[in-house]
Every structure is written in C-alpha cells, then in structure tokens.
Amino acid sequence: MTKVPTVHRIALLFNGNKIFDRDIIAGIGEYLSSTRASWDLYLEEDFRCRPQGIERWQGHGIIADFDDPTMQEALSRVQLPVVAVGGSYADEADYPKDLPYVATDNFKLVKLAYDHLIEAGLQNFACFSLPQADVNRWAQEREKAFESLMQRDGIQGHVYRGVGTSAQSWDTAVEQQIAWVRSLPKPIGIIAVTDARARQLLQACLFAGIAVPEQVALIGIDNDPLARILTRVPLSSVIQGTLEMGRTAAHLLHQMLHGHGAQFSDKRILVPPAGINVLASSRHEARNHPHVMQAMHFIRQYACQGIKTEQVADYVGVSRSSLDWYFRRELGRSVHDEILRFKLDAAKRLLQQAHGNVAEIAVSCGFTSVQYMHAVFKRELGCTPREYQEQLMQGAASSQSSSLPLQQEPIHGD
C-alpha cells in the first residue's frame, strides 16, 4: 500500500496585492504541483498579510515576506520553521539572523536595467526611487546598486525619491516629478525601482510633453501587467526571478519539515532576474529633427486609436508632405508606416497573451478591420494573426517540455 504523505499546515505571509508577492506565491504553488509535498495552506482570503497573533498559530511552518520589518518582529517569537523571502542587501549585517533567506538580487536587477540603457546608446542616467523608510529598504538597496554602478563607471548619476503616493499629494508629486525630469540632462535613461513608480513618471512625462523614449528612456522593475495596461506608451521592465524564489523557498521549508533545518540556518540564496521585457518606453533612438521627435511622441500614445498621418502633422504643426519628408530622411519610412509598425507591435503583444479573439485585438490596436490586420500580418510576417499565435503556443510548449527539472537535494521521508 502506498504511504499517504503527511499533511503539513503552512502559513504564507505575503501581501498578494503586490505583483512581487503574488509571483512568489505562484512559485510555491508550482513547487507543490511538482512534488509529493502535501500542504494545507493558510492564506488570508483578501491576500493581505496580518501577522498579529501569528505566534499563537498552530501550524508546522511559515514562508514570509521579510521586506516588512513588522513581519520580522512578529515572527521573532515563533518557534516554527520559517523561511524568509525578500530583497538582497549590500551589507551582510542587514540580513535576518538564524533563518534561511531567499532574496531577489537587487544589484543584478538594477545592473540589467542599466546595461539595457547603455546598449540603447545613452550616456546620462537617473534613478527614480521611494522615500527613505523601513518598509522601503529594498528600494534603498536598489539606489545603492545604482550609485555603485555610477561610481564604477565614473558617471554622475541622479537619484530622486519624491514623495509617497496619496490622493492629497498626487498633484504636487506629479509637478515635482516633471520639474525633476526637466532639470536632467537629455537624452537620459531612468531606472525606476518598481513598475508602479515607472508608470507614475511615464504619465508625468506624457502630461508635460516630454518625449519617451527620445528624451527620457524609462524602465521599471517587476514586469507588472497592470502597470503596462495603465500606460499609453508600453513600459519596459526587468523581470524578477520571483517564481524561482517561490519554488526555492518551498523546497527549503520542505527540507526543514523533514528534519534538515540545522543545515539551512543562515543560508542565503540570491536569485537573479529572469530577464527583461523590452517595450517602447526604453527603445531609445537618437532623433536629430525635433518634428520627428514630436511626431513619435504622439504616435506612441495614439497609434492604436486609429490616427492618420494628417492628425500627426496637425499635432506637430507642419504639412503632411513635410513631415513625411522628415520621416523618410531620418527613419527611411513614412509616417503611415510608423503608425502601422506600432499597431502591429501592439497586436503581436496581445496575441502573445493568448486571450481575446482576433477581432477584438484588431479593434483595440486601431485596425479598421480584421481583414486589414490579416493582410498586414501576411505582408510583414508571412503568416496570419492566428498562425502567429499558434506558432507562439507551439514554441512555449516545446520550451516547457525540454526544460530540465530543478536540481534539488533529496527529501527523506513523508
């Protein structure tokens, strides 16, 4: 008879309203799906984290977000196995003591964003951070990473923290962000410590008529789909290795539950970023003519609303023929071609998400009909939109089937 695995009651103490925490929880779920671990998970119904009274919880183990100092304090009185998750620290003394700790590598997150902006040909750099506070220690660590990279390369970087987000301070915050961006040398690459922060700054730039990415190339961290939906110009972002962090944290706790806790005391695992999602906000290309820069600024915001060349020319304040001449001289293509190129990129992104039908995608990307989008795909990519989507799905399935399982230490007993 097959032995039934022991059921362990595990608390996941995370704030699921944050993409970072949700992806870690998803990684934990992936680990449980791939092993014989049998866990009864305690997680607040609203995905919020309330550690009050956690020391009286009758369970077997905990995985918790230690970026919040109140969490560390609450769990200091707990006698259960605990795996801590959070951001990495430049100073070893800042890590929690006597606990295994799985961290996102803050230095590598910032370095990946910085290297991307360098490859775009930029020479000026800035960091948009958060106000200094105990709950924002991870943001200060990203500041430190940015400053160390600037010092290493002999560059004068610019750091701006601004104010926290609130309804009362919002208008003032936007005004201050615009003033800061206008004071910076141009063109400039700006790394925001989160996508939420990047979205605020991108919105401020668009409001002030500051061209993104010609004058300001902007990249965030988190690859948050909600932040992308809420911006007219698609936002580039560093993808954190949060799924791997969740899998790793679950693996460590699984080992601890089976008597291997001593070997993991003070164990630290730094997980590098999973990659970078490069979209329009950081695709900087030098534009020599101001009319081309202005036109690109308008096209990025409104291409998917079905704008025509005449509307772009009206915005810039020149004739259609003159604007086309500037475009052909600088970019080698017409204004119409540039609008179409942006709509095609938007359609490809939506098809990659594998939801929504082709007709809905055609409308949302500004194509006059499904047939027209079909013709553009055939002409530019050699396939129909549906064939393009099927190719993506086949590629993803092939990648999954060929990936090797995570190499882990054996777990003894059930």
TrEMBL record:
<protein>
    <submittedName>
        <fullName>AraC family transcriptional regulator</fullName>
    </submittedName>
</protein>
<feature type="domain" description="HTH araC/xylS-type">
    <location>
        <begin position="293"/>
        <end position="391"/>
    </location>
</feature>
<dbReference type="InterPro" id="IPR009057">
    <property type="entry name" value="Homeodomain-like_sf"/>
</dbReference>
<keyword id="KW-0238">DNA-binding</keyword>
<dbReference type="Pfam" id="PF22177">
    <property type="entry name" value="PBP1_XylR"/>
</dbReference>
<dbReference type="Pfam" id="PF13377">
    <property type="entry name" value="Peripla_BP_3"/>
</dbReference>
<keyword id="KW-0805">Transcription regulation</keyword>
<dbReference type="InterPro" id="IPR054031">
    <property type="entry name" value="XylR_PBP1"/>
</dbReference>
<dbReference type="InterPro" id="IPR046335">
    <property type="entry name" value="LacI/GalR-like_sensor"/>
</dbReference>
<dbReference type="InterPro" id="IPR018060">
    <property type="entry name" value="HTH_AraC"/>
</dbReference>
<keyword id="KW-0804">Transcription</keyword>
<dbReference type="Pfam" id="PF12833">
    <property type="entry name" value="HTH_18"/>
</dbReference>
<dbReference type="InterPro" id="IPR028082">
    <property type="entry name" value="Peripla_BP_I"/>
</dbReference>
<feature type="region of interest" description="Disordered">
    <location>
        <begin position="392"/>
        <end position="414"/>
    </location>
</feature>
<feature type="compositionally biased region" description="Low complexity">
    <location>
        <begin position="392"/>
        <end position="408"/>
    </location>
</feature>
